[in-house]
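User: Before I run my own analysis I want an independent prediction to cross-check against. Here's the chain; please return only the C-alpha cells and, at the end, one sentence I can use as a sanity check.
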Amino acid sequence: MFCCIKPIIPCSPPPSPSTRCKSNSQAKPIASSSLPDFNNGSQTHLPPTRNTYSSLIQSCINSQSFDAGRSIHGQMLAEGFVPDTYLMTKILMLYARSGDKDDIVVARSLFDEMTERNSTAWNTMILAYSRETDHKEVLRLFYQMLRDGAPPDKFTFPSMIKACIATSKQEAISQLQGLIIKVGLNRNVFVGGSLVDGYAGFGLMDDAVAAFHEVDGDNVIAWNSVLGGYVKLSLWEDAWSFFHQMLSAGSVPDHFTFATIIKACGSMRSLAKGKQVHSNLIVSGRESDAFVANSLIDMYASCDEEHSCRKAFDLMKEPNQVSWNSIISCYAHLGHYEEALHLFSMMTSSGHRFDRFNLSSSLLACAALNDIEIGRQIHGLLIRRSLDSDLILGTAVVDMYAKCGCTERALHAFDRLEEKSDVSWNALISGFVQEEDAEGALHVYHEMRLSISPDQFTLASLLSLAASRGRADMGKQVHGYIFRTGIEPNVVLETEMVHMYARCGRLGEAERIFHSMRQRNNYSWNFLIEGHEQNGDYSYALCLFYEMQLNGIKPDSFSMASALTACACLSNLNRGKQIHGFLIKNTMDNHRVLCGMLVDFYARCKAMNYAYGVYERVRVKDAYVNNVMISALLDCRRIDEARELFDQMGERTLVSWNMMIMGYSKYGFEDESFRLFFRMREEGVDYEPLTIVPLFNLCAGSSSVDLGEMLHTIVIKSGFSCSSLILDSAVIDMYSKCGLLEDARRYFDSMDDRNIVAWNSMMTGYGKHGETSKVFELYRQLKKFNVKPSGVTFLSLLSACSHSGMVEEGLDCFIAMLEEHEVEIHAEHYTCMVDLLGRAGFLEEAKQVIDEMPIEPEVSTWGALLGACRMHKEVRLGRQVAEKLFQLDSENSGHYILMANIYSSVAMWKEADQVRELMKSRGVKKEPGVSWIRIDNETHTFHAGDRNHPLADEIYTRLRDLTAKIERMGYVPNDEFVLRSVEDPMDYLIQHSERLAVGLGIIKLPERSIIRVFKNLRICGDCHVAIKLISEVTGRTIVVRDNNRFHHFKDGACSCGDYW
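Assistant: C-alpha cells:
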C-alpha cells in the first residue's frame, strides 16, 4: 500500500473507448520540474496524495500532454487510489479538454459516476459539449444541473446562450436573462457580453443594446457583440453609428471591431467610410494584422478599388491563405482576370496550398478569358487530387468549359460530379445556350427534370435561346412546364416569355403575357416593341413606344433603336425627328449606335442634309460611324461621296471594304468593283466569302464568265471552304446565269455537304434554262437525301411549271407546300400561281387567286397577271389590272409598256399612244432595252437602232440577208411588237438590240462556237421567232438570256417550247 510509486512512463490507459494513444506531435512536453521524482533515493518514500495527483493532472492539462495525463489516471486506477470530488473534477477536465470525441465519452462516464458534483464539474461537461457543437446536450445538462441544485456561474451562461442561439430557442434567452439577473451576473463582462450576443443573434437589437448598457466597465467584447449583431442583420447605418459611439466613449477597437465595421463599409459600398476606418486602423497600428487586412481587401473589392485592394495586400508582412484567396477573388470578380491568374501563380510559388476558394476564382478567370489551356491544367490538378467530383470545384470546371464553348468537355466534367446542384445544371445548360445549341440545351433540360426541378434562371435561359433561334416549339415546351408546375414566374421569366413569343412572331401570345404582368420593366416593353417592329407592324411598334412613356418608363437605347427603325421603314420623317429631339434632350445624341441609326434613318427618308448634320456632330468618328455614313451614301446612289469618305478613313475595317465593293457591284460598276478588290488584296486585307459574293453576282448579272472563272480560282487558292451558304449559291448562280449550266452542275456535284441553299440555286439554274425535268429530278433527290425543302425550293418548282405550262404539276406543288412540308407561303408563291394560271390562259382563275389571297398582293403579283393579259391579248382585264398598278407603282415604266403592248397587239394604236402620253405626263421614263455579247473578253453593247458599233454596217447587211433567207422559210414580221405605226415593220424589228448582238456574234465568233447574248428586258416575241429560224439557217447554237430565263436556240427550235 505504501510502496513507492513507479516512474511515470507512457503506458496503456484503462480499458475504455478513449484509450487509444493520441499523436504526441500535438502535445506539449511536461517540464521535468513540474512532476515530482518519486524514485529519488534520497527522498523518503511517501504515498502519493490527492494534491500530488491533482498537481500532476493540472500540469498535463496546462501543457496539453493528454497522453501523459491518461497514463497518470491509469496509474491511479492500478494502485487503487480513490479520488475525491476535487481530484475527480480535475480528471474530468483532463478528458473533456483533450478535444478527442472518445475522451468526451470517458469524461461523461466519469461525470455520471460522480456521487457529488461541483459547479466546475458541471461547467466542464457543458463546455465540452459546447465545443463539440452538441448544443442539445448542453441544454439537457444545464436543466439537469438546475434540478440537482447546482448553481450556474459566469462560466455556465455563455455556453447556454450559445446553445440557445444554435437551437433557435429565442424564448429561452429571456428566461436566462432573468436567471442571470437573479444570481447577479448581468453586469459581468463575460456573461453580459454573451447575453448581448444572444439577443443580437436573434435580431433583437433593442434588447441587445439594453443588455449592453447593463455591463460594467469598458468591455470591447460587448461592443463587438452589438456591432456584429447590426452587421449580421445588414443594418449598416446602425453599425456605423454604433462604431462612432464606441470611439466617442473612448473604447479602443480591437481587430474584430475593425474587421466587422470594414465589412459593413464594403456591404454599403461606401468607399469614403471605408477609407475613414482605414485611417483609424493605421493610427491604431493594426493595418498589417492579417485578419483585419483581409477585411480591407474584401471591402475595397466591393467598392471596385483594385488599387487600394492590392495596396492593403502588399502591406501585409505575411499574407495567409485567406489573404491570398481574398486578393485573387478580388481581381477575378473585378474583371482583372489575367492578374488573378498571375496572383494564383505567385501564391503557389510562395508555398501556399490550393483550396476550393482560390481554385474557383482561377477557374472563373479562365472562363472569362476563354483560356482553355490554363483551365485544363487546373482541371488536371483537380483530377490528380480527386477533387474534380467536389460540388463547388466541379461546378466551376463545368462553368469554365461551358463558357469556353467546350460543351462536350463540360458535359464530361458534369458527369463526374458526385452531387449535382441547380447551379451545376444551370452552368451546363448555359454552355449550350451560349453556343445556341437548342437540341443540346433541351436534352440537358429534360435530364435535369428527372432529378431536380429547373429554377427560374434555367427556364429564362432556355426561353432566351428559343428567342434567339426562333424556336417557338422549344419556347412552348418551357412555357408549358411553367404552366403545368404552377411556377409563379418572376419579372425576368415573364419578360423572357414575351421576348420568345415576340421574336418567333407569335405576337398575340406575347401581348397576352405582357398584359398579364404585374410589373413591366424596360426589357418587357423593349421586346414587345422590337417584336412588332421586326414583324413589319411598324405603326403599332411606334404606338407601343409612346404608350411606354405614358406608363412612366423612360426609353433606353434599345427602344430608341426599334422606334427609329420603324420610322425609317415608314419613311416617317416627322416622327423620326421627334425621337432625334428626345435623344438631344436626354444627352443621348452622341451614342454611337443611335447616331448611326439616325444617319441611316435620314438617308432612307431621302433627307441627306440631316444625315450629314448628325454625322458631323459625332465627336469620335470611328470605323463604325464612318461605315454607317458610307452605307447611307451608297443607298442614296451617291457613290463618289461614299468613295471619298472611304479614301479619307484612317481605319478601314473589313466591313468598309465589303460595303464599297457591294455598292459598286449593286450599281453595276464592274471595273471599279474588281479594282477595289484587287487593291484590297494588295494591301493584305483578309477578305471573306461576303467580300466575294457581290463580285460573283456582278459576273452573273453581266455574264462576265471569264471574270467569274478567275474569281472562282481565287476562292479555291484562298482556301475558303465553299460550304458557306452564300458562297455556294453565288458560284452556282454565276455559272448558270453565264449560260454554263454544266459547270454549275459539276460544282454542285463536287460539294461534300450540300445544304438547301445549294440545292435551290441549282434548281433555279435549271429552271431559268428551261430544264424543267432536271428541276423535278433534283427535287426528288433532295427528298431522298432527307433535305427539308424551303420556300425558295417551291418557288423554283412553281416557276419551272409556270414557264413550261405544267398547270397540274404546279398545283400539286402548291398543295404539297401546305400539306406535306408545312412550308410557310409568302406573296412570291402566290405570284407564281398567278403566273402559272395566267400563262396557261386561265386568266379568271388567276384573278381569283389574287382576290382570295390571305395577304395583301404585291406589285409583282399584279404584274404577273398583266403579263398574262399581254400574252393572251386580254384588253378588258388588262385595263383593270393596269389601273391598279398605275396606282400602286406609278413610276414603274414596265407596267405602261405592257399595257401599251396589249393595245398594240390588237391594233388599238390610239389607246397605245394614250398610255405613252400618260407615262410621259407622269415623268416616267422607259428603261431602254440593252443587249450585250462578250467576245474575246470584251463586252459589246447594243441599244435598239444602234449604229455606233464599228461593224454596224456589216451587222445590218448580214441581218437583212438572214431575214431574206428566213422569209423564204415562212417568216412574217409580227407587227404586234411594233409599238407605233411604221411603214416598214421589217426594218423596224431588225433594229432590236438582241438581233443586233446576234448579228455581231455570227460575224465575229467561230462557226462551231455558241453565240451567247444577254438582254436586260424580256426578249421580243418577233425576235424570238426570227432567232429560231436564224439558228436553223446558220446551223449555229444561239443562247439568249433575258430578264426571265435562258432561251437555247438550235435547229429552228427554242428550249422554252415557245412558252415563256
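Sanity check: Residues 952-968 form the longest helix (17 residues).
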